[in-house]
Specification:
alpha+beta, 325 residues, 11 helices, Dna Ligase, domain 1, D-amino Acid Aminotransferase, Chain A, domain 1, 15 strands
């Protein structure tokens, strides 16, 4: 660590994933709110994966010499799937967020669902298809064997990019084209109606090894059929904090988010998404090992709901990373 009074924090943002623009917003919010005892260094990674410091392209091996710790503000591929974590592990520089293997499994929706099923976390019925396999049956044949209606989405990613609600064969064909344009492997799962819920957790906070925040309730816009990517980031729909859940539902959501974080070996913080059906109960949808931290994001608003400032949260997470926790 440098012999200065301030810890040099390299904030990694941007990246080659389709969540590049969201990551820019997360990184900007982190840079703006770092406490005074840290010296922020903005590290922009472009869509080709080139690192930039103060607008100048630099090799990562040189960037690490200027950094005491990295704050990983990337989302999606590279930043959230273990790729970046592998690079940072080789450099031996501490960083925030989950480690390599936990990131790999959390990013792959199929692996995560299968693993969590063994720990009592139920998911909607689903099937996984590779791009090469999906051409075998016709759309009509596939329509007969998948749940109806269904959600079709790329297998990897914590975003709603490429997610479609399917209610007829024509929509299935369009959804497959979209999902396969983003990934060589997709997941088709049963659509379960109900209220969406998202619940963040924080490590080693307020005397708890894993502290669950209040579940938030994303609310789709009036004409949206579900809480898709356009609802979140283009039409800027809102979330309710805390969500409108019964005491039993709230506790169950928090317990599930805590279990997911723990058994998957996630680190520092994470956010899990669920659907709450009044008759069938609570179903796990996916986990985000690096949830969005931009202004008005569900995670940042959930921090406010429990009386935690964003700057205080950043300080807590960086401290955990520096201590190797």
């Amino acid at each position: 660590m440098a012999l200065t009074s301030k810890i040099r924090v390299g904030v990694l943002r941007g990246g080659p994933s389709k969540e590049h623009d969201v990551s820019i917003k997360t990184g900007a919010n982190v840079l703006k709110n770092l406490p005074e005892n840290y010296s922020p260094i903005d590290i922009y990674i472009d869509k080709e994966g080139i690192w930039h410091v103060q607008g100048i392209a630099e090799d990562p091996s040189k960037v690490v010499r200027k950094i005491d710790i990295f704050f990983n503000a990337l989302h999606g591929e590279y930043g959230e799937d273990g790729g970046l974590q592998h690079t940072l592990d080789l450099f031996g520089i501490p960083y925030t967020g989950s480690g390599r293997m936990a990131s790999v499994f959390a990013m792959h929706k199929g692996h995560a669902k299968k693993f969590l099923d063994n720990h009592g976390i139920k998911s909607p019925y689903h099937r996984i298809y590779k791009k090469t396999d999906a051409n075998l049956p016709t759309i009509a044949q596939l329509w007969k064997i998948i749940p109806n209606p269904s959600i079709v989405k790329p297998i990897s990613g914590g975003s709603s990019i490429g997610v479609s609600l399917v209610q007829n064969p024509q929509e299935l064909a369009e959804a497959l084209d979209l999902a396969f344009s983003l990934s060589n492997e997709i997941i088709i799962e049963e659509y379960i109606s109900g209220k969406e819920a998202t619940c963040g957790v924080i490590d080693h906070y307020r005397s708890k090894s894993i502290y669950p925040l209040f579940p938030s309730e994303p609310v789709p816009l009036k004409n949206s059929r579900f809480f898709d990517h356009d609802s979140k980031f283009i039409n800027k729909s809102r979330s309710i904090h805390p969500g409108r859940f019964s005491a039993m539902e709230k506790e169950a959501i928090q317990n599930a988010a805590t279990t997911i974080h723990k058994v998957m070996g996630l680190r520092h913080y994470s956010r899990s998404d669920f659907i709450v059906n009044p008759k069938r109960g609570i179903y796990f949808l996916e986990v985000n090992s690096l949830p969005g931290l931009y202004i008005n994001a569900p995670f940042t608003e959930a921090l406010t709901a429990v009386g935690q400032t964003f700057s205080g949260f950043l300080d807590h997470v960086i401290t955990l990373a520096l201590k190797g926790k």
